[in-house]
Amino acid sequence: MTEEREPLLSLRQVRKNFGPTEVLHGIDLDIYAGEVVALLGENGAGKSTISNIIAGSISPTSGDMTWKGAPYAPSSPKEAIDAGLGLIHQELRLLEHLSIAENVFLGRWPKRAGMIDRRYMEEQAHAQLKRLGLDISASRLVHGLSTANQQLIEIAKALALDARLLILDEPTAALGGAETELLFKQIARLKADGVGLIYISHRLEEIQKISDRVVVMRDGNKVKEFDSGDVPVRTIVESMVGRSLDRMFPPIPEPDAGVCFEVKNLSSPGGAFKEVSFDVKKGEIFGIAGLVGAGRTELVRAITGADPIALGDIYLNGQKVTPKTPQDSIRRRIVMVPEDRKLQGLVLDHSIANNVGYANFSQVSKFGFISRGSIRAFADKTISRFGVKGQVHQSANEMSGGNQQKVILAKWLARDPAVVILDEPTRGIDVGARSSIYETIVELASKGIAVIVVSSDLEEVLGISNRIMVMAQGRATGILDQGAANDVSVMELATR
């Protein structure tokens, strides 16, 4: 049926070089009106490069594109937007000092009598946010909003464009189940209106729900195309990685009998979480699940001293260690890999060596002095343990999401922590890298470290945890052993 129609967008033999390296090798792709095409592949497969070429952020080295049958070669994102193509980026690109409405209409603020029509702008922005289930004032500043809410604002920006083709790059990476379902309803409406969509996601279970076709990329090549979205996840994964996968999650070791880490009746000043208690055994992987807004991230930030605690105490090996600052937490061997690795976990424009060194000055200094050589040698030894692909002199922003996450893990594990907290450890990370992260988590537990994993990915938290604490509306609603935990039992507790 698609052969009888003219595609909205066509790519023919599109190639892209960065210096002497060709990263796209002659890509052919058609997108039709009213369909969702899932574009899948591991990090580095070329998905983002294709998206940025279509969206006008970069130009192809060679090849041709057509839009609605006419030659198409945008020289800037504005030119692509004016033509009717929009890109929702995986990484948040909001300006925190501006209001939600100003961000939604950034670069195209509506005017009336020569002045910005703020009333119209805020009404329209609020309407788009309500479509996504976010009922907050569009006049408030973006600063202070959660990552999930900021992601919804990014999506609202694209919906407000009235585009005829949308590229959604990991749109649900920071969203929970309820927000994701609202987004899927909007995608269905856009399809019915004849909008074409390119959908990029590492959450492969979503693909069967919303995609009409699946295109798989590997190492800059289009290696597989499926004419339906109803493709087994295993088949997609094996196409992505080019090998058979026997198991996504490694076997989980049994923890020691003794409690290593304990949280008692913890409450936040603002009510984000209330009277939360749990304990973690030495060598245990303790999962924390719940819907967006349940208070999971706020809880672990307070545990590590990043946010204040109103009531309650924290114990490590029986001693009260309630931290007041992140530095206090680190000194007590409690470390956290944050949800937003780019803003909170790394200094992106600094080298891998420096990022590792910043957390380990005491180990790289000699008589109070630090040399570049000592930092590089220490970092090289540290990251080699985790199979990080890259050289220590590279900037962190040149690495894939999976390798960035490994660098953050490496820098903290060099401090010999007793407790490691991972907030959304595989957010925006491809399937191959996720398996590697899971193996690292299991390795930590096997060494006797207490590991706490916060995740919005239900399959992940079920697959990697010895026990799971479920949170809802700031409260712990139950703790499930691995044998009793499944998607139904977790969701029942998460919706209490």
Q: What would you say about this model in short?
A:
With 496 residues, this protein is α/β, with parallel strands linked by helices. The protein folds into two domains: 2-241, Rossmann fold (3-Layer(aba) Sandwich); 259-494, P-loop containing nucleotide triphosphate hydrolases (Rossmann fold, 3-Layer(aba) Sandwich).
Task: Describe the fold and architecture.
The chain contains 18 helices and 24 strands. The radius of gyration is 23 Å and the shape is globular. A hairpin with a 2-residue loop joins β7 and β8 (115-116). Helices cover 33% and strands 25% of the residues. The two termini are 46 Å apart. With 496 residues, the protein is an alpha/beta fold. The mean pLDDT is 86. The longest helix has 16 residues, at 177-192. α12 crosses α14. The protein folds into two domains: 2-241, P-loop containing nucleotide triphosphate hydrolases (Rossmann fold), CATH 3.40.50; 259-494, Rossmann fold (3-Layer(aba) Sandwich), CATH 3.40.50.300. Strands 6-9-10-3-11-12 form a six-stranded mixed beta sheet, with helices on both faces. A six-stranded mixed beta sheet has the order 18-21-22-15-23-24, with helices on both faces.
Topology:
Layout: E1 9-18, E2 21-31, E3 36-40, H1 47-54, E4 62-67, E5 70-71, H2 77-83, E6 85-88, H3 100-104, E7 111-112, E8 115-116, H4 118-131, H5 147-159, E9 165-169, H6 177-192, E10 196-200, H7 204-210, E11 213-218, E12 221-226, H8 233-241, E13 259-267, E14 276-281, E15 285-290, H9 296-303, E16 311-316, E17 319-320, H10 326-331, E18 334-337, H11 341-345, H12 352-358, H13 361-364, E19 365-366, E20 369-370, H14 372-384, H15 401-413, E21 419-423, H16 431-446, E22 450-454, H17 458-464, E23 467-472, E24 475-481, H18 487-494
Parallel strand pairs: 3-10, 3-11, 6-9, 9-10, 15-22, 15-23, 18-21, 21-22
Antiparallel strand pairs: 1-2, 1-4, 4-5, 7-8, 11-12, 13-14, 13-16, 16-17, 19-20, 23-24
